[in-house]
Amino acid sequence: MKFKKVLYLVFLLIVLSSCAGAKIRKILKVGEVAQKNYKVTFPFEYTKTGHILIKATIKGEIYDFILDTGATNIISNELAEKLKVVTIGSSKISDINEKSTSLAYVKLDDIAIGGINFKGTIGSILDLKKGDLACLEVDGLIGSNLMRHAVWDFDFQNKMITITDNEKTLNIPSNYSESKIFVGDAYQVSIITKVNEERVLNNVIDLGNPGCTKLRYKVFKEQKESKRIKKYIKGSGGSGFGAFGRSIEKRNSYLARINKFRIGDYFINNAIVSVEDENTNIGLGFLKNYRVIFNWKTKKFKMIKQRNKDKGNIITFGFKSTFEKNKLYIDYLYDNIKASKILKYRDQILSINNKDYSYVSDSQWCEIFQMGLLKNLKINKIKIKVLRDGEELEFDLEKVKLL
Asked: What is the CATH number of the domain that holds 355?
């Protein structure tokens, strides 16, 4: 399994104060589809960061949007200015690092996707040129508050999306698995799963997470203590860049192997999950093995297996990097492997195999963010030079299997 830094796009769903939240819930109810009795199919691509990329037409021009069931609609500052949208309110929003700001929200008169017109939905304006968000290279996000107005069918094997107002028009084989969905305040969807036969609630189906499944810490801790989870590795480091800024506060997290993970009628053996907080989140790393159908009206989520998910192994040099003021730093280390014994959190990376990283431009960082720091290295050993407390240090590292 290729382990790559990912950006979780749950900007608006770490929801709000109770007063603002109630206001937002009411506002997000608006919107409709202009057409009736429709069914359209169109292709999608993946961004360099692994997110679903679709084309949307607004006022006759085509824009790039990430599709994200874990967020509400978002448009960039630049697109908001170009469209001359009128602000209809604002709310205080928090991101994954508990940083908050006041975001303006606007009414989007018409967004056409695959020729289908979604009218009068709400979106927020966010600076998508800031920090790691600039590396997404998109004009905005299409979120659940728009998607809920149609049935969405994702064929990941062929990279096609079908949207319709009648699920019966879809060619669905008899061997599908179906789960009841629970619709949140901002129309994000979650389901019940089973982890080693234990029911786990509030598993958000998050197309905005291009990575692996996340398991909440409470469940992990209980199953670790009861020996139902036996294989895991701990690590620590920064929590990354959220919607409103970076946090350098160190946090512990885990990777764990689950003996039996169940969604609907499907069992997945030896699944690898990440454990970071109290959120459980099913991302594209899992969903891409299936054809999946979202129906907000019937509150059903269907899955049709398209390929077998392999057991997967995480083989890595044992560290992750982050970017700050044109420098690279060690941002995360796994415990009890060589990297954590010789490298330290916040070491500045000067070079890897004689490639100079003492100065990193914004565009160079985006390439690293999108593809991985060691993307071109097909070898199992590296020589890394770091700066620590004014002293240059050089170490040899080898890839290791984590789980």
From this structure: 2.30.42.10
Residues 160 and 27 in one domain: yes
Q: Is 12 a residue whose pLDDT tops 80?
A: no
Provide the 10 A C-beta neighbour count for residue 284.
Answer: 21
- Name the nearest CA neighbour of 151 among 14, 297, 275: 297
- Residue 10 belongs to a domain: no
**In terms of domains, do 111 and 56 share one?**
yes
Question: Beta strands of 59-146 (E only): which ranges?
Answer: 61-68, 73-76, 87-94, 100-113, 116-126, 140-143
Q: Which residue has the tokens 């920064």?
A: 238
Range of the domain at 356: 315-401
Query: 164 with 181, same domain?
Result: no
| pLDDT at residue 13 in the model | 39
The pLDDT value recorded for residue 14 is: 35
Q: Are residues 179 and 161 in the same domain?
A: no
Contacts of 33 (CB under 8 A, 6+ apart): 116, 117, 118, 119, 149, 150, 165
Are 233 and 151 in the same domain? no
pLDDT band, residue 348 (cuts 50/70/90): very high
Q: Which residue, 389, 325, 319, is CA-closest to 352?
A: 319
pTM for the whole structure = 0.91
Cβ distance 302 to 178 under 8 Å? yes
The answer on pLDDT for 23 being more than 70 is no
- 16 pLDDT above the threshold of 50: no
What is the DSSP track for 235-263? EEE--EEETTEEE---EEEEEEEEEEEEE
Q: 113, exposed or middle or buried, with CB in 10 Å at 0-12, 13-18, 19+?
A: buried
| Across 342-351, average pLDDT | 97
Q: How many domains does the chain have?
A: 3
The backbone torsions φ and ψ at residue 297, rounded to the nearest 5 degrees and listed phi first, read -70, -45
Examine residue 2 and state whether it is found in any structural domain, yes or no. no
Clarify whether residues 33 and 108 are in a common domain.
yes
Beta carbons within 10 angstroms of residue 222's beta carbon: 12
Give the number of other Cβ atoms within 10 Å of residue 349's Cβ: 22
- Considering the domain boundaries, does residue 372 fall inside one? yes
Measured CA to CA in angstroms, residue 101 lies from 13, 17, 244 at distances of 14, 12, 7
pLDDT digits (tens, 9 = 90+) for 249-296: 788 999 999 999 999 888 888 999 999 887 889 999 899 999 999 999
Of 264, 279, 305, which marks where a domain is finished? Answer: 305
